[in-house]
């Protein structure tokens, strides 16, 4: 705590309030410096201002310091002078306009030239501060009004209150206009809205942007607001076209693509791409990105996600959550594009993840799988299950031979085993690539059976004493005239027939 002011409209009111303050300071053991205390005065200096029963006026010591300042000789001295003047801005009407000639010297591209205009401005500001009006205390019971004005250099305002028949100032305020604000502006035209597409990926917008020294491309669907984001190695037409082909292969070719007038989109190569892939390419006016507003706003959203994500994995998760978050219409971009929600780490009902017609598709796929199973199982049979410790041969997938041997360790999954080969290496193989090795007794018995079978199956007259008794030529009779194979009725597969 620095200064305390106790005031009263009468002597009795002042003394009563002072007694309350002193009692409170004694209660909290707050020490006061007697040499710095002033009691029963008509005016005093408080926070750089002189406060009296008339109102508030600038401290004469501050105005005197400004009045005694020498003419500035460089930009730093101009900046110091304006800083002291700005401290007393509430006493100076239209300060921003009054100080404009001096402020113009502070612009970086302006060469230092102290002309007659700056000299007059310097002297006038000193005069204004010397004759600064006394500001009245604000009274909530009195009539109040604000008077404002503007020029090409700044804005100014004054708060006035009525005292009898006069409107007296309570405070002045002003602000200099920035270079952008001081430039003349064109009258805004009525907004032209893009027609809302009737389906996803009928119309898309695209834009390029840079982030953290890398180039990115954004593709946004006008129907669903679903964003596609990719990092580019370069911003050439060839690279941009390659990425767009990837997006179109995933979602389909749009009827219209909207972009800015940048070099990748205004090239002849891009025009050929649009013609070959069959979409209309519309470009916004140069230097007017607002016409491609959806892509511009999507870029801001993605930049915000990149800013909050420290890694690429974090960005992809953020993009996933954005795509699955409902918009103002209650639907997420993924729902509007795909007809269903997409699963993220946020809880979601299973029914919302299922698109329309999923049951019909599931039944169709189950029927196809059953037909494939029946066709395959005509010539298939179950192989014996293997147990840990069984000796097996492993098929070499490159040569088709069964030379490598090993021992089964465990069944990892149905028809999948982990086998330790003779070299000690553990391999995982499917049952069809493993052949159970027979014991030595089984091998001898099988060879004997094969020899007996081979001896009994030898046809008569086929031994070494066999003699050729001649050859007989048999010729099949030609088919009877007029006979032909019946023609089949070819019916196209149902999967190629579109149904509505």
TrEMBL record:
Pfam families: RT_RNaseH_2, rve. Residues 355-397, 438-500 are annotated as: Disordered. Residues 1-51 form the Reverse transcriptase domain. Residues 364-377 have a biased composition (Basic and acidic residues). Its EC number is 3.1.26.4. SUPFAM superfamilies: DNA/RNA polymerases (SSF56672), Ribonuclease H-like (SSF53098). Residues 196-363 form the Integrase catalytic domain. Residues 438-454 have a biased composition (Polar residues). One of its GO terms (biological process) is DNA integration. One of its GO terms (molecular function) is RNA-DNA hybrid ribonuclease activity. Belongs to the beta type-B retroviral polymerase family. HERV class-II K(HML-2) pol subfamily. This is ribonuclease H.
């Amino acid at each position: 705590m620095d200064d305390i002011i106790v005031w009263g409209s009468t002597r009795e009111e002042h003394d009563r309030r002072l007694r309350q303050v002193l009692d409170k300071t004694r209660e909290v053991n707050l020490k006061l410096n007697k040499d710095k205390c002033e009691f029963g005065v008509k005016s005093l200096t408080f926070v750089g201002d002189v406060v009296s029963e008339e109102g508030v006026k600038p401290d004469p010591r501050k105005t005197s310091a400004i009045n005694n300042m020498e003419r500035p000789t460089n930009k730093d001295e101009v900046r110091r002078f304006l800083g002291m003047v700005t401290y007393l801005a509430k006493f100076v009407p239209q300060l921003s306009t009054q100080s404009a000639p001096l402020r113009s010297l502070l612009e970086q591209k302006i060469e230092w030239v102290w002309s007659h205009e700056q000299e007059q401005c310097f002297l006038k500001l000193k005069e204004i501060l010397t004759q600064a009006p006394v500001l009245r205390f604000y009274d909530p019971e009195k009539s109040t009004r604000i008077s404002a004005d503007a020029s090409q250099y700044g804005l100014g305002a004054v708060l006035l209150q009525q005292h009898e028949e006069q409107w007296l100032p309570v405070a002045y305020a002003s602000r200099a206009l920035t270079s952008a604000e001081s430039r003349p502006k064109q009258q805004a035209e009525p907004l032209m809205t893009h027609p809302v597409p009737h389906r996803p990926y009928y119309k898309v917008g695209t834009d390029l942007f840079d982030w953290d020294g890398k180039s990115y491309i954004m593709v946004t669907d006008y129907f669903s607001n679903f964003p596609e984001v990719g990092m580019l190695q370069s911003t050439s037409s060839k690279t941009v076209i390659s990425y767009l082909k990837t997006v179109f292969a995933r979602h389909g070719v749009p009827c219209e693509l909207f972009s800015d007038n940048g070099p990748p989109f205004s090239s002849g190569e891009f025009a050929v791409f649009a013609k070959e892939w069959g979409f209309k390419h519309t470009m916004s006016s140069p230097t007017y990105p607002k016409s491609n507003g959806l892509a511009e706003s999507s870029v801001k959203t993605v930049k915000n996600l990149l800013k909050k994500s420290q890694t690429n994995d974090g960005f992809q998760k953020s993009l996933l959550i954005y795509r699955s978050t409902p918009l103002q219409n209650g639907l997420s971009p993924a729902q509007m594009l795909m007809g269903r929600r997409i699963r993220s780490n946020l809880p979601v009902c299973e029914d919302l993840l299922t698109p329309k017609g999923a049951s019909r598709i599931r039944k169709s796929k189950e029927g196809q799988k059953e037909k494939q199973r029946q066709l395959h199982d005509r010539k298939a049979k179950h192989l014996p299950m293997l147990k840990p410790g069984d000796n097996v041969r492993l098929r070499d997938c490159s040569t088709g031979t069964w030379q490598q041997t090993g021992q089964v360790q465990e069944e990892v999954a149905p028809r999948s085993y982990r086998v330790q080969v003779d070299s000690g290496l553990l391999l995982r193989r499917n049952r069809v690539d493993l052949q159970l090795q027979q014991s030595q007794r089984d091998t001898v018995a099988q060879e004997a059976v094969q020899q007996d079978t081979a001896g009994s199956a030898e046809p008569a007259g086929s031994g070494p004493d066999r003699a050729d008794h001649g050859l007989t030529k048999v010729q099949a009779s030609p088919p009877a005239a007029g006979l032909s194979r019946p023609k089949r009725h070819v019916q196209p597969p149902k999967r190629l027939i579109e149904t509505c």
